[in-house]
Design a protein that fits this description.
Helix 3 crosses helix 4. This protein has a single domain, classed as Alpha-Beta Complex (Maf protein). The radius of gyration is 17 Å and the shape is elongated. Strand 5 and strand 6 form a beta hairpin. The N and C termini lie close together (about 5 Å). The chain is α/β, with parallel strands linked by helices. Strands 1, 2, 3, 4, 5, 6 and 7 form a 7-stranded mixed beta sheet that branches. It is built from 7 helices and 7 strands; from the N terminus they run E-H-E-H-E-E-H-E-E-H-H-E-H-H. The longest helix has 11 residues.
Length: about 190
Amino acid sequence: MNNKLYLASKSPRRQELLNLMGYSFELLLKDVDESYPADLAPTEVAAFIADKKAAAFDIPENGLLITADTIVLIDDEILGKPTNEADAIAMIGKLAGRKHQVITGVSIRSATKQITFSEETLVYFNPLSLDEISYYVKHHKPFDKAGAYGIQDWIGLIAVNRIEGSYTNVMGLPTDKLRKVLLAEF
């Protein structure tokens, strides 16, 4: 890849995953409105927001920008980032003992081309007690995570029974698919 890589994400997990993939990159940070049309299908929201983030930046001629957004979806309800402890506890309570979808939208943009894709992973949670949920929220403070949890955290070790799909997608960046698109298209 001959382009200079930029990552527009505050997520330490996305930054870590891109580093682990062996890519050198520069961070670009900007607050972007993450609203979306009310009539947009829930499965399309993450890609819509990734595109919106990509549009907020000017790309240098030799640059390649990666943006992403992750949502948790259960019963057609999008669980974003919790606003406080009670919200986090309620979100995890909805997930406990059930299956949900984690969808990450990724946009890769150069000065002349843009490719956007989504990746979906099914995550199956074990039942959890209120004490377990409260412990996790109090000690791990998952307020910057969609669905109020990080699969790489304590809760992932005790609550996730199995997944169908990409593990790194649940962390916020589907690395396998990202690499394939970068190699094939850029």
